[in-house]
């Protein structure tokens, strides 16, 4: 079987997990090189997986060992490493978030188009069967015009988690807190199902942890058609919860964890409101069971499925489920919410690139090295193996 030769840049817990997927799990891929700016990490990973190791991404890109690169660096590394990879004619899969600032995302997308290369973002939750079913409900117009949305993405993180890396939850090292780290997966699903807002009124704050950036964020959003929505994200809540609601003129969708519920109305709300003659008339709602896509026996899930789809896009031009260009939608929401909070006013999407770059420069200038740090590199145990 033909395979795609991959190099991994960034060998923290996430990057090492990807190395294992590429070398042991996904049949269409071969791990052929690894890279990290920390020489000991690069050498250890190279020895562990039996491949050449590098400390300079450009040297790896020029080695002739790769067809594609998977980027798992801290967030600020995503854009410059991806752009350099595209300039070397390589295909790129980047971990979430796409980047820190929307202006960087513009540059990444332009570089991918110049190179004519495949470009994907690490949003593996799009592959979940209940999410695929929800997407089909939206595409088939079962809900009608969207009137309201809701996203609650609640997580818990210890102080030890934030102390595990000097870059975590700092403006200089990560470019944000819960919004840029934990929330992107579900902001992506929220916009994939409900659409991209055009206006955000947001607030961020640090409630529990000793960190520079936010551990709580909330916002009211408006859509081009006048619909409204609400977003809430935190790392202060246990048990965790991920809830998305999309409410339309003809029905409602509720995705909570792996549970998908869909209701279809007998009559559209807008028409029935004026056609009904009774003062207490209501609209019957039927609970429907959308068909879930059937996966072949032994099909990959989660991160491996994402990598497999990317590799098959390179080999066979299979459509990408998570195109890199769509990763910019999440960054638009994140940047808009942070800019709204810091400036105390609503912010339109697309975000003013110059305004957000100026704010980020201010925040980075105020950033300070951590006084408490106990480094750890452990792959998230919740990754699907």
Comma- or semicolon-separated keywords:
9-stranded mixed β-sheet, 385 residues, alpha/beta, 12 helices, Rossmann fold, single chain
Structure description:
The chain is of the alpha/beta class and 385 residues long. It has two domains: 4-125 and 302-323, Rossmann fold (3-Layer(aba) Sandwich); 129-293 and 329-366, Dihydrodipicolinate Reductase, domain 2, CATH 3.30.360.10. It contains twelve helices and 15 strands. Strands 14-13-12-11-7-10-9-8-15 form a nine-stranded mixed beta sheet. The mean pLDDT is 95.
Largest sheet: 9 strands, mixed
* Overall structural domain count: 2
State the low-pLDDT regions, or none: none
Question: Strand-residue fraction?
Answer: 15-25%
CATH-level-2 architecture of the largest domain: 2-Layer Sandwich
Distance between the termini: 23 Å
CATH-defined superfamily of the largest domain: Dihydrodipicolinate Reductase, domain 2
Enumerate how many helices there are, as a single number.
12
Radius of gyration: 22 Å
Shape: globular
SSE topology string: EHEHEHEHEHEHEHHEEEEEEHEHHEH
Named CATH topology of the largest domain = Dihydrodipicolinate Reductase, domain 2
Instruction: Give the helix/strand class.
Output: alpha/beta
CATH C-level name of the largest domain = Alpha Beta
Quote the average pLDDT: 95
β-strand number: 15
What topology, given as strand order, has the largest sheet? 14-13-12-11-7-10-9-8-15
Helix percent band = 25-40%
């Amino acid at each position: 079987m033909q395979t795609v030769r991959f190099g991994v840049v960034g060998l923290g817990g996430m990057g090492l997990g990807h190395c294992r997927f590429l070398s042991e799990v996904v049949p269409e891929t071969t791990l052929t090189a690894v890279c990290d700016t920390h020489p000991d990490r690069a050498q250890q990973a190279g020895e562990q997986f039996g491949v050449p190791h590098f400390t300079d991404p450009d040297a790896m890109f020029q080695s002739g060992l790769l067809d594609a690169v998977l980027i798992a660096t801290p967030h600020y590394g995503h854009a410059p490493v991806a752009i350099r990879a595209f300039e070397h004619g390589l295909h790129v899969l980047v971990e979430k978030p796409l980047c820190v600032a929307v202006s960087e995302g513009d540059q990444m997308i332009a570089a991918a188009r110049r190179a004519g290369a495949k470009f994907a973002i690490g949003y593996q939750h799009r592959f979940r069967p209940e999410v695929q079913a929800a997407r089909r409900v939206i595409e088939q117009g079962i809900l009608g015009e969207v009137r309201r949305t809701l996203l609650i993405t609640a997580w818990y993180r210890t102080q030890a988690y934030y102390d595990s890396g000097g870059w975590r939850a700092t403006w200089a090292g990560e470019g944000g807190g819960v919004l840029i780290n934990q929330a992107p997966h579900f902001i992506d699903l929220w916009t994939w199902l409900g659409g991209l807002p055009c206006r955000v009124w947001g607030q961020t704050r640090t409630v529990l942890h000793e960190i520079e950036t936010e551990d709580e964020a909330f916002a009211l959003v408006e859509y081009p058609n006048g619909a409204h929505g609400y977003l809430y994200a935190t790392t202060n809540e246990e048990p965790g919860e991920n809830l998305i609601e999309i409410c339309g003129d003809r029905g409602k969708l509720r995705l909570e964890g792996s549970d998908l519920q869909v209701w279809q109305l007998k009559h559209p709300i807008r028409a029935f409101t004026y056609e009904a003659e009774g003062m207490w008339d209501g609209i019957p709602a039927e609970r429907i069971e959308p068909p879930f896509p059937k996966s072949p026996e032994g099909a990959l899930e989660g991160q491996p499925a994402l990598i497999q789809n990317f590799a098959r896009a390179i080999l066979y031009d299979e459509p990408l489920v998570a195109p890199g260009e769509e990763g910019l939608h999440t960054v638009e929401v994140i940047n808009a919410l942070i800019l709204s909070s810091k400036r105390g006013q609503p912010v339109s999407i697309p975000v003013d690139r110059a305004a957000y770059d100026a704010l980020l420069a201010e925040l980075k200038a105020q950033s300070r090295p951590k006084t408490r740090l106990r480094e750890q590199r452990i792959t998230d145990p919740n990754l699907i193996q």
